[in-house]
């Protein structure tokens, strides 16, 4: 059976109010709003963009959706989880300040911002997964304490998964820091001896005693490390880094499994809107203005994250007349779609319905 994907053409140089009306029309067509109850917590999952990034979804583009959600429940909030890497979004205080600086202020968006995995990324819920490759996922707790989700995604290329869209926003974006680490690496973090100040704080937080003292710095014992990510969180000096050696295939598969664990929580109370505007080679974690790799396409929406991502890639490739994602990184982005389909996250068969009224 095909999944419906609604589509409206849009360009980022249009008036923000017009883009907002288009996004709202797609959101309403999806029917999620009719299912929202007054007492429901509604998470509007978004990426606020790293400091200096300009490609992220603009707050004015989503005000129409927020207005509709608020008509049904006052318990709506904008949300993302803290990042694995040390930056301006690795703790809730700086993350929220950055979101404000990108215009996501209460007077504009009319809903609070809640960083879903708490002050420093430790608030998580473990979800058991029957029969999947990962036995459990570690999801940022505010998402799993919510009743409905509107997943708002800026479609981009990605250095590790080739394409970053709804599946990535759901799987990686909703994971706690430990969940992100789990997806990013089957091995473990390492200590940069030159950056380590030997303060010993990480030793106190490591749950397995994997961090040991060496000459003037600490080291991680790979045999004992369980990849929980705690040391990455607590080191204030950025001395602990990931080994980015999980191959893309495995990472995409894990990402799809995480996405399934989040989607399963919401059952039929989740929808996905992909903004195919200023599609860039890298994701919005990059702290700079990046040129678009294709002309603006528009906004698509679906109840199916696999279908909405497949449609997004197809529209980009059709508009570009080539595959600009593959040109950017020689990564087979189709793994996340194929694997997502295999595990029941959704289907790549879709019916594109273009909306003309908004
Ligand atoms: S917290 Fe950071 S700086 Fe301190 S000992 Fe651990 S790795 Fe070194
Ligand atoms: S990832 Fe967790 S287990 Fe591994 S060294 Fe860091 S704190 Fe210890």
What keyword list fits this structure?
2 domains; 358 residues; binds iron/sulfur cluster; eight-stranded mixed beta sheet; 32% helix; 13 helices; Alpha-Beta Plaits; two-stranded antiparallel ribbon; alpha/beta; globular; 19% strand; single chain; Rossmann fold
How would you characterize this protein structure?
The mean pLDDT is 93. The chain has two domains: 3-182 and 248-354, Rossmann fold (3-Layer(aba) Sandwich), CATH 3.40.50.11440; 188-241, 2-Layer Sandwich (Alpha-Beta Plaits). It contains 13 helices and 16 strands. By secondary structure, it is of the alpha/beta class. The chain has helices at residues 16-30, 63-72, 92-101, 106-109, 141-144, 166-171, 177-184, 201-205, 230-234, 248-266, 305-320, 324-328, 334-342, and strands spanning 3-9, 42-45, 76-80, 113-115, 124-128, 136-140, 148-154, 156-158, 162-164, 190-191, 211-213, 218-220, 240-241, 270-276, 298-302, 350-354. Bound molecules: iron/sulfur cluster (SF4) (2 copies). One iron/sulfur cluster is lined by residues 191, 196-202, 218, 234-235, 237, 239-240.
């Amino acid at each position: 059976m095909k999944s419906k994907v609604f589509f409206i053409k849009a360009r980022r140089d249009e008036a923000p109010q017009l883009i907002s009306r288009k996004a709202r029309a797609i959101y309403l067509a999806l029917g999620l709003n009719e299912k929202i109850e007054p007492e429901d917590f509604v998470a509007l999952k978004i990426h606020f963009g790293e400091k200096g990034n300009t490609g992220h979804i603009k707050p004015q583009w989503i005000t129409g959706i927020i207005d509709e959600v608020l008509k049904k429940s006052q318990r709506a909030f904008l949300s993302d989880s803290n990042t694995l890497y040390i930056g301006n979004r690795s703790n809730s205080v700086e993350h929220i300040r950055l979101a404000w600086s990108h215009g996501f202020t209460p007077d504009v968006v009319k809903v609070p911002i809640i960083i879903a995995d708490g002050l420093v990324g430790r608030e998580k819920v473990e979800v058991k997964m029957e029969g999947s490759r990962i036995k459990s996922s570690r999801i940022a707790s505010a998402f799993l304490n919510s009743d409905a989700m509107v997943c708002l995604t800026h479609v981009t290329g990605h250095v590790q998964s080739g394409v970053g869209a709804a599946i990535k926003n759901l799987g990686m974006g909703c994971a706690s820091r430990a969940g992100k680490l789990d997806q990013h690496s089957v091995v473990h973090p390492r200590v940069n001896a030159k950056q380590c100040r030997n303060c010993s704080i990480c030793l106190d937080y490591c749950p397995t005693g994997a961090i040991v003292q060496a000459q003037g710095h600490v080291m991680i014992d790979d045999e004992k490390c369980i990849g929980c990510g705690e040391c990455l969180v607590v080191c204030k000096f950025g001395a602990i880094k990931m080994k980015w050696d999980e191959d893309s295939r495995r990472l995409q598969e894990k990402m799809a499994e995480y996405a399934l664990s989040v989607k399963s929580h919401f059952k039929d109370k989740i929808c996905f809107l992909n903004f195919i505007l200023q599609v860039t080679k890298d994701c919005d974690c990059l702290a700079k203005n990046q040129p678009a790799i294709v002309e603006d396409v528009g906004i698509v929406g679906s109840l199916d994250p696999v279908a909405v991502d497949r449609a997004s890639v197809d529209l980009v490739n059709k508009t570009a007349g080539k595959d600009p994602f593959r040109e950017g990184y020689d990564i087979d982005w189709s793994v996340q779609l194929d694997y997502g389909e295999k595990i029941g996250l959704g289907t790549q068969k879709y019916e594109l319905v273009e909306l003309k009224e908004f």
